[in-house]
Amino acid sequence: MKNYAALIMDLKKSRAYSVEDRNSIQNYILSVIQYLNIVFSLAVIREVEFSAGDEMQGLFSSPEAAYLYFRMFRMIVFPVETRAGIGVGVWNVKIEHASTTAQDGPVYHNARHAIEHAKNAQGYPALLYSETKNDVFLNTPINTPFVLTSKHSEYQNELMLMLELLYPINFQQVVDDSKINLIFELVTSKDKLNYYTNYKKRRAFKKYPFVMAQSANLEPFPIEAANNQEDFYVAAGKKRGMTTQLSEILNISRQSIEKTFKTANIYEARNSTIAALLLMDKYL
Questions:
Q1: In sequence order, what are the residues at sequence separation of 6 or more whose Cβ sits closer than 8 angstroms to the Cβ of residue 10?
Q2: What is the pLDDT of residues 237-263, one digit of tens each?
Q3: Tens digit of pLDDT for each residue in 259-284?
Q4: Which residues make Cβ contacts (< 8 Å) with residue 129, sequence separation at least 6?
Q5: Across the chain, where does the E strand assignment appear?
Q6: What CATH class does 3-135 carry?
Q7: Which residues contact 109 (CB under 8 A, 6 or more apart)?
Q8: What b/e readout covers 108-135, taking b as 16+ CB neighbours within 10 angstroms?
Q9: Rg of the Cα trace of the chain?
Q10: Which residues on neighbouring strands pair with residue 128, listed in sequence order?
């Protein structure tokens, strides 16, 4: 039987937020998953939706799609901390024309197993469980990009996200690149939410990338990880002209962007993401 991938996500320390902030964050996240369901529509079997409290779940055609969905989600909702469980397995309780919360099977049980363990796994914001011996070898590379970017500031995260919208990492076309600009519109709306505006006010930067580029028309140049031709090490996450293009969009020096990329491990995180996708494809 065909294997699918279930994704369960939730918010870390959600009870630490004020009632006002929690409501604001949840309303924003509702918009985020609605937009991402469109961007990932080619791979979404059952759309991601809130299932209980701060928890969300959905069903995907592949673990790579679920992983990329969580990765994008994590960048968009930053600095809100999130975690995820990705379950790989059979979907054998199928309720036609019903949402993800009505479905069941080993794929969902495995996702539940993964996120329950992620709650206590330091340094592993996402865990994958497929009931195979490969899981122990996959979970570290899957989390390497998250560890590399765990100390990001909002400015660094926005710069990485903008680079992702310009050069989205894809895998077997699970991302609909023609819909990527929807994310740009979504992220600019964050500044209307008190939680995010207050967070930014406490930081030193006066202008953030998505404020400086509000009128930009971003044309994506996707990077298809499945077509990786490198046989020694992965370097496809970095393309010539990336920083020059961002410099022109943001009207800041290329050297400044390069410095931020180096400090924030952005190239390393992107290359690690591609490596993780290739490993999942090989061993799942």
A1: 53, 54, 55, 56, 82, 83, 84, 115
A2: 999 999 999 999 998 999 999 999 999
A3: 999 999 999 999 999 999 999 999 99
A4: 85, 86, 87, 88, 110, 111, 113, 114, 117, 135
A5: 3-11, 44-52, 55-60, 82-90, 126-129, 169-170, 223-224
A6: alpha beta
A7: 87, 89
A8: bbbbebbbeebeeeeebbbbbbbeeebb
A9: 18
A10: 86
Calpha distance 251→101 (Å, rounded): 46
- Residue 141's closest CA among 278, 284, 280, 276? 276
pLDDT the model gives residue 204: 62
**Model pLDDT, residue 214:** 60
How do the domains of the chain map onto residue ranges? 3-135, 154-282
Residue type, 179: K
For 200-207, which contacts have Cβ atoms below 8 Å and span 24 or more sequence positions?
200/154, 203/153, 203/154, 203/155, 205/153, 205/154, 205/155
